[in-house]
Input
Amino acid sequence: MRPLTQEETNTFFDKLSKYIGENIKLLIDRQDGTYCFRLHKDRVYYMSEEQLKIGSSAAGECLVSIGSCFGKFTKSGKFHLHITALDYLAPYAKHKVWLKSSAEQQFLYGHHIMKSGLGRITESTEQYQGVIVYNMNDLPLGFGVAAKSTLACRNCDPMTIVVFHQADTGQYIREEDTLT
Amino acid sequence: MSDLDTHHTQTGLVTKRLFIGGLSSDISKDDLIERFSKFGKVDNVKLTTRLDDQGVPVKSFAHLDLEGEQSKLKKCFDTYQNTKWKGSCLKLQYAKESFLDKLKKEREKEDVPKKVDASPAAVKPPDISDIKGPAVPGTPLPGKTDWVVGKYGRVLPIMNLKKSNKLKVVKHDPSKLCHTAKIFKDESLDLSAPCEKLTWEIDTPDSDITKKRKGDFLVTQSVEKVKKHNSTMSPVPDSICRNNLVQKQNINMPMKPAYSAKNQSPSVLDIPEFKGLQMLSTNPVDLKLSLIEDSPSLDVPGTKLENKSLTRHKNMPLKKNDFKSSSTGGTTTDLTIFENTSDSISPTKTQQKESNCSNSSPQNKTSQNKRNLNVSPLGVGAQSEDNGNDSASSADTDEIIARHKKKCNLSMQSSLENKLTPVAQFKAKPLPSRSLNSSLSDNSLYTSECFTYSPGLSDYSLPNTSLAKRTLEDSDLDSNDLELVAKKLEQKETVFKPSIVKASPMETKAEQKVGQISTTVKENCESVVKVMDCEITEKKDKKASDNIKRLKAIRETSKLKLKQQMVIQKALEHVDSKDFGSVNRTVFASDSEDDVDDGPTKSFSEASEIKTSKKSKDTMELFGSSSDSESDYEEMFKSKPHFEGKKGEQLMKMERNFGDSRFKLDAKFVDTDSEEEEEKNHINEKSSQDNDLEEEKAASLRILENVIGKSKLDKFSEKLKRNTKYIIDMNTVRFDPTKVLAQKEVQTKQNLTSGKIPLTLTDRANKKSSLSQADMRKSNREEETNKTESVTKQKQLESTKIETCTTETKNKSKISDPESDTLLKTKDTSDNAKNAAKSRVDKSLLNLFISKESEKDENNTQVFSLLDQFGNISGDSSNESDIDTKAQAIKPKAVLTGLFKNSQDPKTKTTKTSTNSALNLSDQPRKGNNTMSDSEDLVNNTMSDLEDEMDDDDLSEEDSISELADEKEVKKLGLYEETDQALINAGRIDIRYTREEWRKHWEEIRPTLVKLYKRKHKEAVKNKRVQNERKRKQDFLKNVKNRNWRHIKK
Output
């Protein structure tokens, strides 16, 4: 377990900023305590100071997880968000997509979102902007990447993909063994 | 190979079939014949040429039979082998037999075995060619029972062998066994060292080890060992030993007169004789015997000794000393005298023995002396052994362990002395330097001499028997009559002790080698036994051998015991070493005690004893002191754990300052502020960790800046500042009542220092504060007013501090009432006392300082002041209105108050002025005078008496009205405060006023109230909208949080 290097932090924040923009600051600079990101086994964990203190006493090999996992660095150095970060990102979401209840299950099974399933979308969402997917009851379901901008969405075919699937809460079941 | 055609002929000619290879293709048969005919007769030439597919000859070779002498054949090979002939290299070989020849031969051979059988020369090993099939090892030869084909194709006989020490005949089949046979190469058998070198010798034949190997032991060592044994007595538990000795001494006392001279003064040798005689006279049998024994015949000693033993037998029941009996023996003959002397000497140095011997010798007749000498060694041995045993038994009464040790030690001593004494007598040389070997040789010499002197061995053997008997008796006595034996033996011990003391200087040395003693002693014993054995075998005396065997047995048993005791001793040593100091000390102590008792009689030994004892004491002291001092120093310089560290420093200082060196401060005296220090350290650590995290945070923020862009981030952070309250950490949100209160308080009273807020807050106050908080948020202006209020409030605070207690309580009481807001409303309507209201609002902030008692007091004052106020401003009606508004809702009132404040803002400046507060101050004392009396009266009254108090209040009210009427306008502030308090008791007031009065009030107030209500409603709607918004946001956050929990549960 170690702090992220500058490069790692860059890539990590780059990714996060796609979803929550400058709200990252709220994760780093919190009023209710000191929180930090730590890298452990290529995974980035977000934890409070207390957790860090407790966790630092554990041997690296033994430590399965600490705090909540935000994602992992791939071997090529890219960062993948995990669904476990949803709780921290959803409140600060910049761009949101609401799904119709019919498309909800499809998304939760790991499919992309088609225009037919799109209930609402935040205005001024650009193409390839990270979005947080909600159902119509404002329950966050996962992450996605806007395949088309809001404007483009309006004019497109109902079967075109509007949002690429990134992570969904269904992964808690599907990838139970790999999620940390 | 044997199957090649080698036909030995009588002429010496050999016919060989040759193979000639590597011929060129153009060589004919004739050429070959021509060439090989030089070496013999060539016959049956066969030339073969191999052709390839095209018919071109590839190679050709020839076979031919060459008949000639062996040498010629060889020459042929030499000349033609690898020589070139017509361009090709010749190769000669003996050819294999031609197939046809083979066949032919086989046919012939079928008849051969028969021929062999028939022939009488079958002794020869049969030829392998007899076997039809392949000559596999192990195949028996046909027709031959005991022949078998061996490994290498040889035919070998099967043999029937008989092993050297066994009856069984083993069949030896070479075909089976020869496989296992190994061929040893020369190297493996080659021995690195010659045979001479296998035997070895030690170069120094005189070294100790070699001597020991040969069975020779140094006398010096043995002597030392003897002394060691003495010393080994010391490890016996001190207390026990001492007790024993004391007892012995006590018992000895009565006996002393009789034996002291005999036992303890070796110098006076005559006395024992006489005494012994005297003793004998008591015993008629002994006397007779002694008379008989006086004759110097050689036979006598034996009989004497027998008699002795008999006398012993008699003596025992008579409760007489062993020593006595022995001494009786001594008196009968000179021998016993010698015994006595030797007895006294035995544990001492050999030199002393010598001197004793010399002493004794003049007294004895020369003729007798010789004879005595013959017997004496054994006698002495017996005596000493007796003593040893006896002493041991004495100890037995007291302590088993002690006894065993002594017994063994002494017995060993005696055994050694057996050898030593004769040596001393015969050689008259200083023994200490002599080796045991020499002593043994001397012993043998002596024995031979002894036998020359003594006509028969019977003399010699008899003492032994008597000795054995004695020992047996002793053992019996051990079990039977312990007390008696103890008595006897104690005396003997006293005899031994001086000698021990004499030896003490040596003991000190000997003690060093205590550990080795047991084994060496055993060896000595064995050697002695051996010597004895040898002697006896030489003499071939049956009796003697028997006796010696008995002796052996005795010694063996003693050895066994010794072993046991060594074990016990070791075990005890561990225990004792802890309890008592050094081994030295105990020994000397016991000795010195003996000295004191025996002192007068022992003139000779005394001096040395005292010296040694003194020495020992000195050494003891030295040791003790040194060790003590050492330990002291160690303690002094030992680092004390409680003086380490910062705490330790403090402690050291404290101790130094304390002045008394006897008083030592230990860790208990350390102040507890060390804990604080620790905490501090902890905090420091924490802070350092925090610093790290802070740095990390800063770094990550920097990176974030890069990622997002500084301007964007700055904007965001600004935005954040505005809406910080909306950002809540879902993970840490928990209901914390104290926190909530504190937050609200902080928000409501931003200017109040939190430290001044008491913990006892009434619910009302909370409610009010929350309401006022809501109001304050409404507008910035309001905040401003708050600020100004705070200023005034502070001033007031100061003033109140200065004021007397009574006034203080009054003020506070006025301020404290949460209903003051409602009162304010009423005032507002009447537009009478804006300034007062202002100040009241200020004072409402001071609510928190109220104590319950003050509230009580104030209740009275309130009533009074309320009336006063109502008197001024249509008192009753206002009261009514207050109650009504209260009933309607609290919120609107709060709103109103807020509004009221706003309206008041322009006038706040005036109220802010110090003059106002000064007025307050000036007014209040007056009021205080009035109220003081009431409050003082009421302080002790309970709440249940309040009604009655009210009446009293009424009276006081009237007084106050008259007073206040004059200064109404100035004092309004104070009045309003009082009315605020009065509202608390509104219920009671209701009762007091009539319905009509209330209605009157109500009608007066109503229009204003309606107006106010409308305004309030507007505000409320606005509020609600805002709140709804907020709620929605909060709900969303809650949802998120719930989801979190759900996930976690999953």
Notes: Residues 995-1049 of chain B form the longest helix (55 residues). The beta strands of chain B are 13-23, 41-51, 57-69, 84-85, 88-89, 91-94, 147-149, 155-157, 159-162, 169-172. Chain B has a mean pLDDT of 57.
